[in-house]
Structure formats: C-alpha cells, structure tokens
Amino acid sequence: PFSGKRRSKPTMPTWNFSGEEIKRRESFQKLFFALLIAILLVYMVIAAILESLVHPLTIMLAVPFALTGVVVAFLASGISLNIMGYIGIVMLVGIVVNNAIVLLDRVRQLREAGASVRDALIEAGRQRLRPILMTTLTTMLALIPLALGIGNGAELRRPMAVAVIGGLGSSTLLTLLILPALYLCIEDGLTILRHLLL
Question: What pTM was computed for the model?
Fold first, then answer.
C-alpha cells in the first residue's frame, strides 16, 4: 500500500580527475595562453617590419600551415601530444613565419622599386627560394637526432623535435606555394576596395 512517503532516488556515483591530470590540464591552459601571446607579439613585429596591418595577417597564415604538418608528424610517428610537444608548437609560431617574412619583405622592396604585384611575387620567389630552403633544411636536419630519440633524455624531448620538424616542413612548402597566391588575392581585393571607396 501507498504509505505517502516519497522514495529517495538512488544517488549516481560521481568521479573527477585529480593529481597529475589536474596539473596536466593547468599546464596546457598556461601553454595555450602563451601561444596566444606569442601570436600577438609576432603579429606586432611583422606589422612593424612590413609597415602594414593587412599583410601580417597573410604571413600569420603560416601558423595553421604548420599545424597541419604537426598533426601529420605526430600521426606518422605514433607519438602522443604532451607538454614538450605543445612547447614545440609554441616555438613554431616564431619559427615558421620567418620564411614568409623573408619572402614578403622582398616583395615589398620590389614593389617600392616599381614592379607590379605579380612580377614582384615571381622575382621574390626566385630570389628567396634558395635561402628559405637552406635555412629550413638545416633546422630540420639538426633536429633529426632528437626526433629519433638519440642521446640521454632525448625521449622526453622527442615530441618537441617531431612537432618542429613536421610544422616547419609543411609551413615551408605551403608558404612557397600558397602564400604568393593569397597575397595576390588580397592585393586584388584591396585594389577593388580602393576603387569602390573613391
């Protein structure tokens, strides 16, 4: 018979993370903040070098180019992302934009000398191809022993080397192939916008 008393619902068991997992999450949050600060500082430096607010954004596209290489490198090597790998990603923000700065700074110089946008891109690509490839290859080759885990304690730093190698390789390739096309599209868009505003 109904007694009038409500039966209390059984409590569900709860669980939460603690210990090392909490420290890991805090570390990743701090590194994500460091990544955002790094992107902001790099943008400010590039804006000062190129004396433009638009084309630094074009150069910053090298960062997502690098992230695709990082993902591929980690999947190919079978290494999981850890704190050292994330540090390598933060380092990439400053490393991968170097090639784009070298290329687009030369484009700016040629345009100031009177060359058209298309001619400046072709000539800058021809002149800066060798220096870009040389600096990229030397950096990647220097990190190969670390990425292979050679030496004492190298296994701990291996994810950082894998992240830098993968990100630098993909960003260099995509910077040389895609960045000039993006630059040309942006310049065409700015030209159309100037005509519309005048």
Answer: 0.76
| Residue owning tokens 């490393």 | 95
SS (H, E, C) the chain: CCCCCCCCCCCCCCCCCCCHHHHHHHHHHHHHHHHHHHHHHHHHHHHHHHCCCCHHHHHHCHHHHHHHHHHHHHHHHCCCCCHHHHHHHHHHHHHHHHHHHHHHHHHHHHHHCCCCHHHHHHHHHHHHHHHHHHHHHHHHHHHHHHHCCCCCCHHHHHHHHHHHHHHHHHHHHHHHHCHHHHHHHHHHHHHHHHHHHC
Closest of 68, 70, 25 to residue 166, by C-alpha? 70
- Residue 123's pLDDT is what? 93
Cβ count near 93 (within 10 Å): 23
**How far is it, in rounded angstroms, from Cα 95 to Cα 66?**
10
The pLDDT confidence band at residue 7, using thresholds 50, 70 and 90, is low
